[in-house]
Amino acid sequence: MDWPLKIQGRLLSEKEVNQIRILLRDNPSWNRSRLSRELCRYWNWQRPDGQLKDMACRELLRKLEFRSLIKLPPRQRPGPGQLPIIEPTEVDRTAVSCMFSERLSFRRKPLKTALKKLGQYFGDHSKFQYKIFRKNGLPTGSGTVESAIRRVINLRVKGAGMFWKRENAEKMFFLRSLVLTGKLKTACRRALGIVKDMFANNALDDLCIAA
Question: Over 60: is that where the pLDDT of 207 sits?
Fold first, then answer.
C-alpha cells in the first residue's frame, strides 16, 4: 500500500494508523465517538473555531475500516440508511396468550350486548309500519328530520364564534321553529291574549307563551 493515505483531506501515515490500532487495543471499552474525540485531541485536529473535527474523524475511521486497516467497535446506533439490529428474545407465550384472551373476552361482552339490543329492535316489527305511513302520506325516511336539524338548528346557532347556554339555545330553537313554519304571528297573538288575561287577573308572576 502506498503511504501516506489521503482521507478526509488529511494525509495519514502508516505510523498514525498504528497509533489508532494501539488505542483500539488498549481501550476496548471506547466506542467510536470516544475514539474519534481522543484522536482529534491527539492530532490537534480542529476547525478554525477551535471545535474538534469529530465527524470528519469518524468518517476517516470508517473508511480505514472499509479498507480493512482497522477493526472498529460495533455501532451503538444504526448508521444512515441502516435498520437497527433486533436481537431475538425469549417470550413467555402463556402470559401473553392469557392477557389477549382476557382483553378479547372483555371486548366481546359489550359487542354481545349491542348485538342483542339490535336484534330486539329489528325483531319488533310494530316499529316498521311503512305501508301504513305511505298510505297516509307520511314520510318514512330520515331526510325530513335531517333537513330540520340543518335549517332549524345548524344555520342559526352554529355560526363562527357562537356559544350558547342550553336553556337559551332551546328558546332560540322554539322561536326559529315558529318563524320557519309560519306560526310566529299566531303565537304572538296567543301570547298577547295570555298577557292581557294576566293583567286582568293581576297574575304576572309567570309568563307562559303557548305556541
Answer: no
Number of domains in the chain: 2
Task: Show contacts of 43-47: CB within 8 Å, 24+ apart.
Answer: 43/16, 45/10
> Residue 52 has what DSSP assignment?
B
Residue at 4: amino acid letter: P
Angle (nearest 5°) at CA 23 between 19 and 28: 155
Longest dimension (CA), the chain: 120
The answer to the question of residue 152 being in a domain is no
- Residue 107 scores a pLDDT above 80: no
Domain that holds residue 197: 164-211
Predicted pLDDT of residue 210: 43
Q: What is the mean pLDDT of residues 82-92?
A: 63
Give start and end residues of each alpha helix (H) in 44-125: 54-66, 93-123
DSSP-assigned beta bridge partners for residue 46: 52
Instruction: Give the tens place of pLDDT for each residue, 165-189.
Output: 988 888 888 888 888 888 989 988 8
3-state secondary structure of 182: coil
Give domain status of residue 26, yes or no.
yes
